[in-house]
UniProtKB/TrEMBL annotation:
This is Replicative DNA helicase. GO terms for molecular function: ATP binding; DNA helicase activity. The keyword ATP-binding applies. Residues 37-52 have a biased composition (Basic and acidic residues). Coiled coil: none annotated. It comes from Aeoliella mucimassa. InterPro entries: AAA+_ATPase, DNA_helicase_DnaB-like_C, P-loop_NTPase. Residues 94-251 form the AAA+ ATPase domain.
Length: 334
């Protein structure tokens, strides 16, 4: 696939109405006799969304919806840690959007990569696409090697092993290498058009955008509109099937940048809030949960080993259906 020209989006239907008028040489009776389709521009006649095999059509999931009621299907979430661990309160699900926000240095990327690698190691059929605007894929892999090998990240980063550290590092790398067919890293330029095309091409089950304020949509220059359009494009991507995980910067006041666009568009929203000065105790606050109970997570960050730890649940039960609405008073969600 050729990504050389990102200036135009071949998937976008134009909203320009200047060419919607009939040709000047055609009189109204002639148009009526021949039919409207004869003079409509191509973008109105063509029901394709400009990609082969993807015709524009209404939702056809009625039968699946009815079957889900009969079979009592529930929203299923990926297990991101061992059963009974609070980390499983972090919701990632196919067809859903999860946003994780945090100030710089709180560990957004670290936590997300830990969860994603846990998922691909737990589910052999799942593939992940990571689009990180700031870090090299090798650095992301080094962090996970340090965690799995239980060797300080600085040792892995500098390749200066002592004693048995070298063998532990190589063993951890040996665990990760078989995942290369199911873990893909997007390369620049980072645009939503290229991301959607790549996600479709490799049939990704989970797409990670790190981070959303650095992504762009072709033709949009206003920052606020850029964030809004990125969220809209991410929602469209999720509706095609993959789970979409977006990392977001926070303002100095601790709010999502362009808060209304981010929070209202997603299904689940979390914020990493440090509880002490050295950033080892962090609370992952759940600010929105559309299909589950809102539950916070108490985290401890081991910066040396590049790992987040969470305590066990006191009682590991699935939340009761619709408990997220129990305290709703009919007002705004936020």
């Amino acid at each position: 696939m050729n990504y050389a020209n990102d200036s135009a989006d071949p998937w976008r239907v134009t909203s320009d109405t200047s060419s919607f008028a009939p040709p000047p040489e055609a009189s109204p009776p002639e148009i009526a006799a021949k039919g409207m389709q004869d003079w409509r521009p191509d973008e109105l006649r063509d029901t394709s969304d400009k990609r082969p095999g993807h015709a524009v059509k209404p939702w056809d999931g009625w039968a699946d919806w009815q079957r889900s009621l009969q079979e009592q299907d529930r929203q299923s979430f990926f297990r991101v840690a061992a059963s009974g661990n609070q980390l499983n309160r972090f919701r990632i699900a196919k067809g859903r959007m999860t946003v994780l926000g945090g100030q710089q240095g709180t560990g957004k990327t670290l936590l997300t990569m830990q969860l994603l690698f846990n998922i691909v190691m737990e589910y052999p059929e799942i593939s992940v696409l990571v689009a990180n605007c700031e870090m090299d894929p090798g650095e992301l892999l080094d962090r996970n090697v340090a965690r799995l090998a239980e060797v300080p990240y600085a040792v892995v980063r500098d390749r200066r092993y002592r004693g048995g550290q070298r063998q532990r590092v190589l063993d951890a790398a040996g665990e990760i290498m078989p995942l290369k067919e199911r873990v893909s890293f997007m390369q620049p330029p980072f645009s939503m058009e290229r991301l959607k095309a790549l996600a479709e091409r490799i049939e990704a089950d989970i797409v990670c955008i790190d981070y959303l304020q650095r992504f762009r949509v072709s033709g949009v220059t206003d920052f606020r509109m850029q964030v809004s359009d990125v969220m809209s494009e991410a929602r469209e991507l999720a509706m095609r099937g993959p789970a979409v995980v977006l990392l977001s910067a926070l303002s100095r006041q601790g709010e999502f940048r362009e808060s209304s666009e981010v929070e209202f568009a997603c299904d689940y929203a979390y914020k990493l809030v440090p509880q002490n000065e050295d950033g080892t105790e962090i609370k992952c606050e759940c600010h929105k949960a559309r299909n589950a109970a809102k539950e916070n997570i108490d985290l401890t960050c081991n910066h040396s080993m590049q790992e987040f730890l969470a305590p066990a649940e006191d009682q590991f039960d699935e939340p009761e259906p619709h408990t997220e609405f129990a305290a709703w008073d009919g007002g705004s969600e936020f």
